[in-house]
Each structure stands twice: as C-alpha cells, then as structure tokens.
C-alpha cells in the first residue's frame, strides 16, 4: 500500500524533527559543557551589572542582569508569550521560558552576621531584606530547616504579642513581621539590622507580607 504525504503534513513533520534535534542537542550537553555555558551566562550578567545594574532593555521590570541569569529575551518583556511578564513570573517563582504551572525551587537564606534574609528563586538570590534576629542572650538557632507552618497572625503566649505573617521553622522560632502588642504598640523598624529579638527572625512590614505570599510549607530555610 502506498500513500502520499500532504504538503502541510510534511512541514509539520520537518518542524517536529528539527525541534527534537534541538532538544536532543541540548540534552546531550555534558555536565562540563553545561557548567561552561552557565559560567558564560553568569559572567555576562556580572559585566552588565558592573556597567549599569538597573538597566532594563525591554522595560518589563527585570534588569538585564537578571535577564541573562534566567536566560530570558532582553528585548521581549514576555519571553514565553503566555501573557505574563518575565518579571511577574520570576517574582512568583514561575519559569519565564515556559507556560508550565510548576514552580521553580525556592529557598530562604538567613545571614545572622550581616542581619540579612535572602529569598532565592531557582538558586538565584532574587530578593534581599534586612532582619532583626535573636539577641545574644537568646540567639537564633543556626542550621538547615524548612517552613513547618504558616499563619497570617500568630500569638506568642510567652511574650504577649502578635506576630503577623508567621513562618515557623523550628520549635517556637519563626520568621515574621515586626511584632505588636495588644495595646497597638509595634516594634520599631529602627531595630532592623540589629539582633534584638527573642530568637525569631523579624522582617519589615512590606517584606514580611511579600515573603509570606510566596513561600509555602516545606520551603528550605538555611540559617548561618
């Protein structure tokens, strides 16, 4: 039996074969070649950041430095054409090069020495916030943890205060917004950058809400 392939079918087959060939070539990269490719991308990002760290060619809110790091199109605010800007997708931990709803890996790093919290998206430090960790007599524990529970407003029986945007990590220790007391008094933002808490990691008003909205139970937390 013989049959003819319609012209449009031929085009589809050719495009499909070319696509598979490209995917195959990408998958065929050795670990060394992938590392070399990543190194080139990071070096280019550093060069751009050194020249103008805030330059944004396509005006999507994502600097050219991050465009290079995430591999997005510097001249297209929506690289994957799904109707969401590259910035919006990365800011919500989605892949800007895919319409998939699967999220990028997320992580929180807490630098006690420099009183900083870093929010990582796919291994990249995406956001940095000033914190207030435990005072010397009540130090914040170090180590590798994960978010165990969340609550928009937690209550501390021990200290009689409210802790908005609670992210529990170990025991009674968690990450939360600057606390406030029943009388309405709130811990001042001037304490951020200083280790004065009872062991928890305190964040400013906006950063705490931002982080709470983006991370879930199970998110890795490294404190050092």
Main features:
alpha+beta, 9-stranded mixed beta sheet, L,D-transpeptidase catalytic domain-like, 2 domains, 224 residues, 29% helix, 5 helices, 9 strands, disordered N terminus
What does this structure look like?
There is one protein chain. The protein has 224 residues and is an alpha+beta fold. The chain has 2 domains: 7-91, no CATH class; 106-223, Beta Barrel (L,D-transpeptidase catalytic domain-like). Helix content is 29%, strand content 25%. The protein contains 5 helices and 9 strands; from the N terminus they run ααααββββββββαβ. It has helices at 7-27, 31-51, 64-70, 86-91, 205-214; strands at 106-111, 116-121, 124-132, 143-146, 149-156, 161-170, 173-177, 201-203, 220-223. The chain has a 9-stranded mixed sheet, covered by helices on one side. It is elongated and about 55 Å long.
SSE arrangement:
Elements (H helix, E strand, L loop, with lengths): L6 H21 L3 H21 L12 H7 L15 H6 L14 E6 L4 E6 L2 E9 L10 E4 L2 E8 L4 E10 L2 E5 L23 E3 L1 H10 L5 E4 L1
Parallel strand pairs: 1-9, 7-8
Antiparallel strand pairs: 1-2, 2-3, 3-8, 4-9, 5-6, 6-7
Helix pairs in contact: 2-3
Provide a count of the helices: 5
CATH topology category name of the largest domain: L,D-transpeptidase catalytic domain-like
* Structural class by sheet pairing and helices: alpha+beta
Query: What's the CATH architecture name of the largest domain?
Result: Beta Barrel
Mean pLDDT: 87
Instruction: Please give the domain count.
Output: 2
Calculate the terminal CA-CA distance, rounded to whole Å: 71 Å
- The largest beta-sheet arranges its strands as 4-9-1-2-3-8-7-6-5
Overall number of strands: 9
| CATH homologous superfamily descriptor of the largest domain | L,D-transpeptidase catalytic domain-like
């Amino acid at each position: 039996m013989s049959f003819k392939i319609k012209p449009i079918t031929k085009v589809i087959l050719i495009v499909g074969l070319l696509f598979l060939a490209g995917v195959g070539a990408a998958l065929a990269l050795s670990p060394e070649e992938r590392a070399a490719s990543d190194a080139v991308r990071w070096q280019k990002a550093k060069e751009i950041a050194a020249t103008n760290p805030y330059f944004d060619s396509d005006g999507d809110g994502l600097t050219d430095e991050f465009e290079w790091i995430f591999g997005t199109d510097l001249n297209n605010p929506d690289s994957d054409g799904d109707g969401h800007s590259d910035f919006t997708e990365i800011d919500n931990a989605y892949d800007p090069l895919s319409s998939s709803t699967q999220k990028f890996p997320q992580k929180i790093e807490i630098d006690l020495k420099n009183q900083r919290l870093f929010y990582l998206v796919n291994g990249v430090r995406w956001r940095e916030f000033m914190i207030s960790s435990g005072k010397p007599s009540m130090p914040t524990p170090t180590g590798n943890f994960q978010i165990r529970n969340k609550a928009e407003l937690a209550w501390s029986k021990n200290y009689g205060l409210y802790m908005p945007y609670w992210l529990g990590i170990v025991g009674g220790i968690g990450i939360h917004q600057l606390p406030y007391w029943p009388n309405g008094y709130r811990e001042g933002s001037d304490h951020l950058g200083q280790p004065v808490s009872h062991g928890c990691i305190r964040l400013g008003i906006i950063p705490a809400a931002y982080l709470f909205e983006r991370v879930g139970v199970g998110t890795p937390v490294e404190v050092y």
